Amino acid sequence: MSLLVIGTVAFDAIETPFGKTDKIIGGAATYASMSASFFQKKMNLVSVVGEDFPQEGIDMLNHRGINTAGLQIKQGEKTFFWSGRYHEDMNSRDTLDTQLNVLSTFDPVIPESYQDCEFLMLGNLMPSIQMSVLQRLSRRPKLVVMDTMNFWMEVAMPDLLQMISMVDVLTINDAEARQLTGEYSLVKAARKVLSMGPRYLIIKKGEHGALLFHGENVFFAPALPLEEVFDPTGAGDTFAGGFIGYLASMNDTSFDAMKRAVIYGSAMASFCVEKFGLERMKELTEAQVDQRVQQFVELTDFEITLV
Amino acid sequence: MSLLVIGTVAFDAIETPFGKTDKIIGGAATYASMSASFFQKKMNLVSVVGEDFPQEGIDMLNHRGINTAGLQIKQGEKTFFWSGRYHEDMNSRDTLDTQLNVLSTFDPVIPESYQDCEFLMLGNLMPSIQMSVLQRLSRRPKLVVMDTMNFWMEVAMPDLLQMISMVDVLTINDAEARQLTGEYSLVKAARKVLSMGPRYLIIKKGEHGALLFHGENVFFAPALPLEEVFDPTGAGDTFAGGFIGYLASMNDTSFDAMKRAVIYGSAMASFCVEKFGLERMKELTEAQVDQRVQQFVELTDFEITLV
Fold first, then answer.
1. Among A184, B43, B133, B191, which residue's beta carbon has the most beta carbons within 10 A?
2. DSSP character for B17?
3. What is the CATH number for A122?
4. Test mutation, A256, A289, A304, A307, chain B, max B CBs within 10 A
């Protein structure tokens, strides 16, 4: 099944307790598509960069089978830039700098060859741009997964709510679920979100795992306990990419498939945080992914038979 | 198998965002033994109260089959009292008042009828008192589980370390694991704790579940996502009581049994927080426990077969 990923392709400068980077390649769509490419071979990307974006970044994507026909390169303009510093506990961060650059006028163009899209990942981006992508597809995809963040709740809530009402799966973190609904209890927050439109809600809790809600059903996937979290940047996007990549590769949108997809997404995210930026994803092998998923099986496996 | 629980029997006064209580019955040994009684029928308690402790408190324990021959009642003295206020998120609390009273001179006496003890729960208490209980048993129990808290790391670290070296299972929370070892990563912290003596370590993460470490093995049990956490007091003790109660009832100390025991402990703790103090535990039925454990099975169940 064809998978389309839209979101940012960016430069990031990251500081963690373990060190800092100069401008390195990042962005929601970069992380998500790299992650999805471990499952789904036919993949299309829609995004925008400036003329300062290096060819090696595009080569990296193409090398993983990601079609970049929908990646606009704006001459005379600069790529979106984000800079942030993580706190000691790695669960919170300060944004040091945001330069929208090409993103401020981004008008997504869907190449004709992308119109067979069955699975759509709307990575974190202005809700109005996520909307225009959905509108520019001649046929609604079978499954639309949307990621967003607290910033859009503050500056574009009406657009965001409209967008949320149109997707099948929403992925947000625990703080965002609380902010979006005004409910502290994640169970109550989930019920409210599911009444806004999505059939499925994933609440990402970082090192504390992820919850999948669907009707009255709940599934919990832990995060893998790691020796060291080196750089959490892109972990949520990597999770989402693994999630939808797995579903697309199986062409299955059942609840049981979603549960497995949450485990695959969690496994991918556990790799992402092991090194700075995309370093770990670039060297990752499919055998390592299988091995890590097996660790998740062992981490959660118990046998209780009630009489 | 005979199970002995030692710890505090206390009065608590609790404030949460949902309300406040006058002096109600609490204490680590009370919560742990009440919880364990759902699994293990032959149960003995060692603790101390003052003459102000009501007969109905003792009746409550006896009604659940808990032998209180080892519960000293000190005439002319007052029961240990703790008062605390929970913050909005229920994950942190301030101690408002602590009156040691009878606890300051507590010298545990083990009735002769308790000497068949095979499973020993050392509830949170001064490490030196935990030690004297272990020394006063004529035979080392088959399994010794110890719970403790950050306070003893601050005022009695040498005693605490000696005590830790003598137990089979240590249960502490994530902040305590970090404080005890100086390691932020729970994987690294666990490795250090396991090198101090215990064969098993349980790190309790409250609403984020619990981790069981044994050698290079890790098992994770989620907390049940709840509509509302009403009062977290005693949840850790209730967890520990369910854990050892299950193991004692099965007479099994294998890693597989421990994994199941962590699920049973988590299920018991999920009830404890639903009402103030011991209210929920008093009305709980065994059928409800089974039903809740089934919810844990469904919460974590997924099927991945790697080729």
1. B43
2. T
3. 3.40.1190.20
4. A304
